[in-house]
Amino acid sequence: MSNRGQSETTSRNDEIEEAAGQWLERLALGSLTDEETGEFEAWKSQSLAHRVAYVRLEATWQRTERLAALHRPMLEKPPVGGNPGGRLSPKYATALGAVLLVGAGVFFGSQHAGDLAYSTDVGNREIISLADGSHIELNTNSALRVRLGRGRREVYLDKGEAYFDVSHDAKRPFTVVALGHRVTDIGTKFSVREDANKVEVALVEGKARLDLSATEQSSRSEMLLPGDVAIATADQISMQKLSGQSIANQLGWRRGVIVFDSTPLGKAVAEVNRYNRTKLVVTDPSISRLTISGTFPADNFQIVVDAARDVYGLHTKRHEDSIEILR
Amino acid sequence: MPRVSEDASSVESWFARVVLPLEPALMQFLRHNWRNQSDITDLRQDVYERVFAAALKEIPAHPRQFVFTTARNLLINRIRDEQVVPFEAVTDIDALNTAIDAPGPDRTVQARDELRRVQVALDSLPPRCREVVILRRVEGLSRKEIALRMGVAEDTVTEHFIKGMRRLAGLLYSDPQDLGRML
User: Fold this and answer.
1) What average pLDDT score do residues A70-88 get?
2) What ipTM was predicted for this assembly?
3) Out of A41, A63, A309, whose CB is closest to B172?
4) pLDDT on residue B124
5) In this predicted structure, what is the pLDDT of residue A72?
6) From the list B16, B42, B114, which residue is nearest A55 (CB)?
7) Confidence band of B89 (pLDDT split at 50, 70, 90)
8) How far is A178 from chain B (nearest CA, A)?
9) Cβ of B13 and A306 within 8 Å?
10) Which residue of B has its CA nearest to A40?
11) Confidence grade of residue B75 (pLDDT, cut at 50, 70, 90)
12) Do B111 and A257 touch (CB under 8 A)?
């Protein structure tokens, strides 16, 4: 047992694994020319030992993908202060992350008044700790701004989805604004998702009030209780009551998963596409209607593709940045 | 990622999804049943090759059973081929049956633990290896940019990356019990 470690360096497998690592490195940190792609395929075809060693290392690399979301909060990425209405430009965001990786913690506690802007890229998540003790979890491809004032706290969800765990303060109401609709907490955990022209609010704990944007004379509002899911369009609110489990499933993204429960494939694909740059495409309505169930890692569309293939015997066609699912 | 053919690629993803998670149990089985511990990694790869070859013809309906039966047959053949190996090299071939029957972890629990598991594994890598992975994954930097940031040559970045991935594979697949202690 004690020579286990040494064996790694003396086995035949060692050389192959090293070579597999070389290929993975070239793909993961750079890119391959057409000629190199040919060499890579040839290497893989040379022996199953090559292929298997590569698959194992590649799977390992894939498993680090979700670290992006995990590590951001640990790096204490500071909010961008004094930038009203502005979003992080990608360039600026990178520069910021750079500073923080080496000097983690230096900016800790440097939140100050003014708008704080946060955003995430496709496939990423971020946990934001606010100075008032509230926490926000920002889902994939989302952006919001936080304005902490003396008399009130406001968050503007500019796109995407976020989960709010609000530290209640009756003297300082916490309001989330999305498409002009306002969700005001009354001691709450809830999520808000903005999608095209509608806003969906799911209440996990506590109580919150949803006020429709006051475009018309008579503004409408609803009080939400745990399990309530409200969908607000420009001029109306529709309410739905979900079980605790269904709400937990809906918030699966907080732990990096998407949960489907007899979800039509068309809808499932749209959901998966929120998290991945490679888009899944279903055009055949008879395929869209097929249902899928299970818990899937949000960042691994391949598993959904495999499920469609294994369960329904569907076929796939790979395009440059998309995968089509066909009969 | 380029693919040889749809077939090979679907076997690859099946392999990563279904077979690799069995690696801890497979390693344990091999260690228990083979005296010479320096053979273990090669034995594991042999099992993988056979399983992969079989899957190219047809994906096994009962992967767990298939993997362990393959491992068992491989060990038995080795004993026959290498007369020098004393028979008690295979100490407990019947342990195989319990290994097959042990249920796999619940899917939901798996998903929840996955983040933590990967994070802890990453934290236990040498700092420079870890840094390369983070600069790529969190900040999306290229090899060249990582080299600049870390103040090292690009070749050094490559070395750190490969070393890091090989160690990580070991932690995530072969020796999750080491990881368990850190969780």
Assistant:
1) 35
2) 0.81
3) A63
4) 85
5) 38
6) B16
7) very low
8) 28
9) yes
10) B2
11) confident
12) yes
Q: Give the range among A26-30, A108-112, A212-216 with minimum mean pLDDT.
A: A108-112
Top-confidence residue, A212 or A44: A44
Report the amino acid identity of residue A236: Q
Choice between B7 and A101, residue whose per-residue pLDDT is larger? B7
- The 10 Å CB-count burial string (b at 16+, else e) for A128-157 is bebbeebebbbbbbbbbbbbbeeeebbbbb
Top residue of B26, B33, B115, B173 to mutate, by most chain A CBs within 10 Å, is B115
User: SS3 sequence, chain A?
Assistant: CCCHHHHHHHCHHHHHHHHHHHHHHHHHHCCCCHHHHHHHHHHHHHCHHHHHHHHHHHHHHHHCCCHHHHHHHHCCCCCECCCCCCCCCHHHHHHHHHHHHHCCCCCCCCCCCCEEEEECCCCCCEEEECCCCCEEEECCCCEEEEEECCCCEEEEEEEEEEEEECCCCCCCCEEEEECCEEEEECCCEEEEEEECCEEEEEEEECCEEEECCCCCCCCCEEEECCCEEEEECCCCEEEEECCHHHHHHHCHHHHCEEEEEEEEHHHHHHHHHCCCCCEEECCCHHHHCCEEEEEEECCCHHHHHHHHHHHHCCEEEECCCEEEEEC
- Residue A34 dihedral angles phi and psi, to the nearest 5°: -60, -40
Domains and CATH numbers, chain A: 3-98 (no CATH), 110-248 (2.60.120.1440), 256-326 (3.55.50.30)
Is residue A64's pLDDT more than 80?
Answer: yes
Is the pLDDT at B96 greater than 70? The verdict is no
Sheet of A315-318, strands arranged across: A279-281, A322-326, A315-318
Tokens of A150: 């003396």
Residue of B8, B119, B139 with shortest CB distance to A98? B139
- HEC string of chain B equals CCCCCHHHHHHHHHHHHHHHHHHHHHHHHHHHHCCCHHHHHHHHHHHHHHHHHHHHHCCCCCHHHHHHHHHHHHHHHHHHHCCCCCHHHCCCCCHHHHHHHCCCCCHHHHHHHHHHHHHHHHHCCCHHHHHHHHHHHCCCCCHHHHHHHHCCCHHHHHHHHHHHHHHHHHHHHHCHHHHHHHC
